[in-house]
Amino acid sequence: MPNHLTTIDTPAAVISLEKMQRNIARMQQQANALGVRFRPHVKTTKCADVVAAQRHAGATGITVSTLKEAEQFFAQGVTDILYAVGMAPHRLAHALDLRQRGCQLQILTDSVQGAQAIADFGKPHGHAFEVLIEIDTDGHRSGIQPEDAVLLEVGQVLHQGGMRLAGVLTHAGSSYELHTPQALMQLAEQERTGCVRAAQRLRQAGLPCEIVSVGSTPTALAAASLQGVTELRAGVYVFFDLVMRNVGVCREEDIALSVLTTVIGHQADKGWAIVDAGWMAMSRDRGTSKQQRDFGYGQVCTLDGSPLPSYVLSGANQEHGIVSAEGAADTDIVQRFPTGTRLRILPNHACATGAQFPEYHALADDGSLQTWGRFHGW
User: Which of 14, 27, 170, 377 is most buried when burial is the number of CB atoms within 10 A of its CB?
Assistant: First the structure.
């Protein structure tokens, strides 16, 4: 029996290959036009097949959020890896092991204490870690502000401690809270100027700073100039999702990831269809709840992926999801979605939804499917 959407078990994570390839090409073209290298963040997919497509399009190196991801992609032959999470001292032994086996791993810090721990570990092992300093350009999460005096202290600790101060990195994560082109463009420029300024200060102090790395999916796509930047990063762009739709950097028809689900029952008096995709399939992420349009746990689509604008996954238990019409209850819900009907749900957050599955079903335009494995574990 052919392996296609009418026969595979549900719930299942489905990738539209045509949409994914279009998204990959769009971001790579943006990086090329702005004259910077592109280093995709692979935590979104954790999938070697997706990363192969990104690299084939022109991406150079990858970004990871765990050393487990670094380990797994290194085993797949990827050597240029940026671990873009602050380095905890207890992970330095793992990082050293990767580097000694040939992985060109770069690590990150944003404090004097963190820098000292790296130097104190690297020096007695006769090893110079390649380190970037994280810069805070929007007050979102981590990093040192560009004008903060501690920036130079961190740089000095690394440099004098025998480490390789490779550069600076920032992530304008607050871009997820925006929804107008002007606001996104302004934040992209703020991200650029802040990171470039930090690099200038290090260089003026006589410290090396080759890499200037910026990026989030919204600011990467909104940037008009990346003068002074050497590297662009983004992750969720490869699939997009409903949060990105609300931010304004994609359309619903650009979202390449969906969850295939089956109608398993009804609560007709409530106007509900019950499906087998609950939060174990969609995740608990309710990222659209604070945006201008709330999609519940996801946008309901037909089997061919066409959105049904009036229907969302309005509720989710562990294995059960509730499909309902926005507004008044649908009195024809049983006839509209009979038991056994297959639907697809677009996710709020592609990273969180993808994480619920051990594999993807990659759907080609001719309806054929490939099974792509997904790395699990931290």
Answer: 170
Q: Mean pLDDT over residues 227-250, rounded?
A: 98
In the numeric block, the tokens 């797994």 are attached to: 72
Query: Percentage of the chain surpassing pLDDT 70?
Result: 99
Q: Could you give the angle at which helices 150-160 and 112-122 cross, rounded to 10 degrees? A: 0
Taking each helix axis from N to C terminus, what angle separates 92-100 and 112-122, rounded to the nearest 10 degrees? 50
| Angle (deg, nearest 10), helices 181-204 and 150-160 | 50
Confidence at residue 116, expressed as pLDDT on a 0 to 100 scale: 98
**What mean pLDDT is predicted for residues 125-144?**
96
What is the gyration radius of the CA atoms in the chain, in angstroms? 22
pLDDT at 158: 98
In this prediction, residue 378 has a pLDDT band, given cuts at 50, 70 and 90, of low
Per-residue pLDDT averaged across 274-281, rounded? 98
The Cβ-side half-sphere exposure at 311, using a 13 Å CA radius, reads: 24
Q: Which of 158, 85, 155 is nearest to 121 (CA)?
A: 158
The single residue listed with the structure tokens 């959020």 is: 65
Chain centroid to Cα 215, Å, comes to 11
Give the tens place of pLDDT for each residue, 135-153: 999 988 899 999 999 999 9
For residue 93, what are its two tokens?
């032994």
Contact 30, 53 (CB under 8 A): no
The 10 Å Cβ neighbour count of residue 77 is 8
DSSP state of 296: B
Length of the chain: 378
The chain-wide mean pLDDT, for the chain, equals 96
Using the 8-state DSSP alphabet, how is residue 331 labeled?
T
Q: Cis ω on the peptide bond leading into residue 11 (within 30° of 0)?
A: yes
- The DSSP secondary-structure symbol of 88 reads P
Dihedral sign of CA atoms 322, 325, 329, 330 in order: negative
| Contact assessment for residue 196 and residue 212, using Cβ atoms and an 8 Å cutoff | yes
